[in-house]
């Protein structure tokens, strides 16, 4: 991939990032997407260059890597690698998920942590950016094995986190079960009951709406965009990739708002249901049985399942008005973008983190498709994590309606901030530039005020 930026200063910074860490392609992509969109702000904020804010912001404050040994059900010792990338704490304690997946490596976690800085900034809540995880795969493991791993993982991580230092959350592979095991071990080791992790169970400090938050927030963001143009979800055909937490609740909210979701996917293929996805069936498969999406056609014979070695690539050939990529990074490439545009897509909004390749993003923008980047559109999850932190600090528990209303307000504020910032810098409707610049300005102001740290 050619990561050349026209602006000499920004290009020099980009090439320096690549030279320092040549084997981190996902991180390079995230930095490129950010740097290539923020040039307009340099002319109006020369202090960002003078104080070397960008040189500092692309370098994590702390990178922690550690061994995670655990014993499986056969009595054999297994060894995984654990990470925590504490990227930036200028506006608050580090905040970001823990990903458990065989693909986890330093590059992926640095890209996620970097994105988290600006996503958290956009929420207006006082949260810095971080990410962590392990190459451990919870799929196919027993509860005892997952517990053994999580406890070993936390035996090292606990010394680096805390309610006022770093508050991890769930991510791919890290659900309520894993958060429970990690929290229990932290509580035992630290001898304190605090809001150190978010995504907790409702009986022990969790927040209502947290499960739904990322998917709901994604649709609230898109709804704001539609309303700006005197439109709505009503009557729109929607394609959602993935079938995990984000995809399920994006499907639910899009349907509630009047849209018809016709497709979902997993890593093996995708389903198409022209009558609209039956979400009860999907929840039974994914949340109860932890099965594969192909099982949907057993319950709904009129639906079609297509095996796809690329996971959800083929799903983008299905005609739709709104596309919501909610699976994983780089799932939507240039060929997929061309297929979507040819079929008349109007809006593409990212539910996953960086699911769209840079050339696909450019193609959408060139063809007047409204493109909503993940750091803005999927910020509802971390926003509600921030609300969980607030409830924990106050020893309170808010109702579903209270949290949902706050989430809706936060997503409306994010849209307004991103939209108005794009217009102010002369890039109207460019939500990539709007999100990156709006997110950067708050972080930059805090970094400059706090001196050279």
Compile the SSE list and pairings.
Layout: H1 8-20, H2 25-35, H3 39-44, H4 46-50, H5 53-57, E1 62-71, E2 77-88, E3 94-100, H6 106-122, E4 128-134, H7 143-157, E5 166-169, H8 176-190, H9 213-228, E6 237-241, H10 245-256, E7 260-266, E8 269-272, H11 279-288, H12 296-299, E9 304-307, E10 322-325, H13 334-342, E11 347-349, H14 358-366, E12 370-372, H15 374-377, H16 380-394, H17 400-424, H18 431-449
Parallel strand pairs: 3-4, 3-5, 6-7, 6-10, 10-11, 11-12
Antiparallel strand pairs: 1-2, 2-4, 7-8, 8-9
Helix pairs in contact: 1-2, 2-6, 6-18, 7-8, 9-10, 9-16, 9-17, 13-14, 16-17, 17-18
Give me a quick take on this structure:
This protein is an alpha/beta fold and 453 residues long. Helices cover 46% and strands 15% of the residues.
Q: What is the CATH topology of one domain?
A: Rossmann fold
What share of residues is helical?
40-55%
Order of helices and strands: HHHHHEEEHEHEHHEHEEHHEEHEHEHHHH
- Distance from N terminus to C terminus (CA atoms, Å) equals 33 Å
- The name of the CATH architecture of one domain is 3-Layer(aba) Sandwich
What keyword list fits this structure?
single chain, 453 residues, alpha/beta, Rossmann fold, 5-stranded mixed sheet, 18 helices, 12 strands, globular
Structure in words:
By secondary structure, the chain is of the alpha/beta class. Among the domains are: 62-192, Leucine Dehydrogenase, chain A, domain 1 (Rossmann fold), CATH 3.40.50.10860; 214-375, NAD(P)-binding Rossmann-like Domain (Rossmann fold, 3-Layer(aba) Sandwich). The chain has helices spanning 8-20, 25-35, 39-44, 46-50, 53-57, 106-122, 143-157, 176-190, 213-228, 245-256, 279-288, 296-299, 334-342, 358-366, 374-377, 380-394, 400-424, 431-449, and strands spanning 62-71, 77-88, 94-100, 128-134, 166-169, 237-241, 260-266, 269-272, 304-307, 322-325, 347-349, 370-372. The longest helix has 25 residues, at 400-424. The two termini are 33 Å apart.
């Amino acid at each position: 991939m050619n990561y050349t930026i026209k602006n000499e200063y920004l290009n020099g910074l980009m090439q320096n990032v690549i030279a320092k860490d040549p084997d981190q392609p996902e991180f390079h992509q995230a930095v490129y997407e950010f740097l290539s969109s923020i040039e307009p702000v340099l002319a109006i904020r020369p202090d960002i260059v003078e104080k070397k804010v960008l040189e500092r912001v692309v370098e994590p404050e702390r990178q922690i890597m550690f061994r995670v040994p655990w014993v499986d059900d056969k009595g054999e010792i297994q060894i995984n690698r654990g990470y925590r990338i504490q990227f930036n704490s200028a506006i608050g304690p580090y905040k970001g998920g823990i990903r458990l997946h065989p693909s986890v490596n330093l590059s992926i976690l640095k890209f996620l942590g970097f994105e988290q800085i600006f996503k958290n900034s956009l929420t207006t809540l006082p949260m810095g950016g971080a990410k962590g995880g392990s190459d451990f795969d919870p799929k196919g493991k027993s509860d005892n094995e997952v517990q053994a791993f999580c406890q070993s993982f936390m035996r090292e991580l606990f010394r680096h986190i805390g309610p006022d230092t770093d508050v991890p959350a769930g991510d791919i592979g890290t659900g309520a079960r894993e958060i429970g095991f990690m929290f229990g071990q932290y509580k035992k080791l630290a001898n304190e009951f605090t809001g150190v992790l978010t995504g907790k169970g409702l009986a022990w400090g969790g927040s209502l709406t947290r499960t739904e938050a990322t998917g709901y927030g994604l649709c609230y963001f898109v709804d704001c965009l539609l309303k700006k143009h005197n439109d709505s979800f009503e009557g729109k055909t929607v394609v959602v990739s993935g079938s995990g937490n984000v995809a399920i609740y994006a499907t639910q909210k899009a349907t509630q708002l009047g849209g018809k979701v016709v497709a979902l996917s997993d890593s093996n293929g995708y389903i198409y249901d022209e009558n609209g996805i039956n979400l009860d069936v999907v929840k039974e498969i994914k949340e109860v049985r932890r099965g594969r999406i192909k099982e949907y056609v057993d319950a709904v014979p009129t639906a079609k399942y297509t095996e796809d070695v690329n996971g959800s690539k083929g799903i983008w050939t299905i005609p739709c008005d709104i596309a919501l990529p909610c699976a994983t990074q780089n799932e939507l490439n240039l060929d997929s973008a061309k297929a979507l545009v040819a079929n008349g897509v109007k809006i593409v909004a990212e539910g996953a983190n960086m699911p769209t390749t840079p050339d696909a993003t450019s193609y959408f923008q060139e063809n007047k498709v409204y493109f909503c980047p993940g750091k803005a559109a999927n910020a509802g999850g971390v926003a509600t994590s921030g609300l969980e932190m607030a409830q924990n600090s106050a020893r309170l528990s808010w109702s579903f309606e209270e949290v949902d209303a706050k989430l809706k307000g936060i997503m409306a504020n994010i849209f307004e901030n991103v939209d108005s910032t794009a217009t102010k810098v002369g890039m109207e409707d460019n939500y990539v530039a709007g999100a990156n610049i709006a997110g950067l300005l708050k972080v930059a102001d805090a970094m400059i005020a706090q001196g050279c740290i």
